[in-house]
Amino acid sequence: MLRTLIAEDDSDIRETVRYLLEGANYQVDEAADGAAALKALQAMTSPCVALIDLTMPKMSGIDVLRALAGQPEVTACQRYILLTARQAKLPPADAQALTTLKVKVVYKPFDIDDLLEHVRRMAETLA
């Protein structure tokens, strides 16, 4: 069973995504802020698809991804989906971090089936 991490400060969204992923037979871990997400991802030793909210307390999703980008020993067995309601284009430095890690951006509100498909595709690249 593939491991997933939901890094989302909104408990309702986190609970909904957890329910969705567990229903699709994924193991689910949670983080309520960016610092907790970074710590959890750095500690993981098994393959993981992480769904990371852009705007969180303590560290933004971009800050988490920037920190991970310099840790290839961690990112080699992880894939990332950035969740955001922000439709504006990201600054070039942020966009570069997403490109480096091959991050998929999913906009809120998202279609549940589409989100599951993105997770499935990311999981396939870990196999």
Reading the helices and strands in chain order gives EHEHEHHEHEH
Largest sheet: 5 strands, parallel
State the low-pLDDT regions, or none.
Answer: none
Question: Any idea what the radius of gyration is?
Answer: 13 Å
Structural class: alpha/beta
Strand content: 15-25%
Written description of the protein model:
The chain is α/β, with parallel strands linked by helices. The protein is 46% helix and 21% strand. It has helices spanning 11-23, 34-43, 61-69, 72-75, 92-100, 112-124; strands at 3-7, 27-31, 48-53, 78-84, 104-107. The chain has a 5-stranded parallel β-sheet with strand order 2-1-3-4-5, with helices on both faces. Strand 1, helix 1 (11-23) and strand 2 (27-31) form a beta-alpha-beta unit. Helix 3 (61-69) crosses helix 5. The chain is globular.
How is this fold's topology laid out?
Layout: E1 3-7, H1 11-23, E2 27-31, H2 34-43, E3 48-53, H3 61-69, H4 72-75, E4 78-84, H5 92-100, E5 104-107, H6 112-124
Parallel strand pairs: 1-2, 1-3, 3-4, 4-5
Helix pairs in contact: 2-3, 3-5
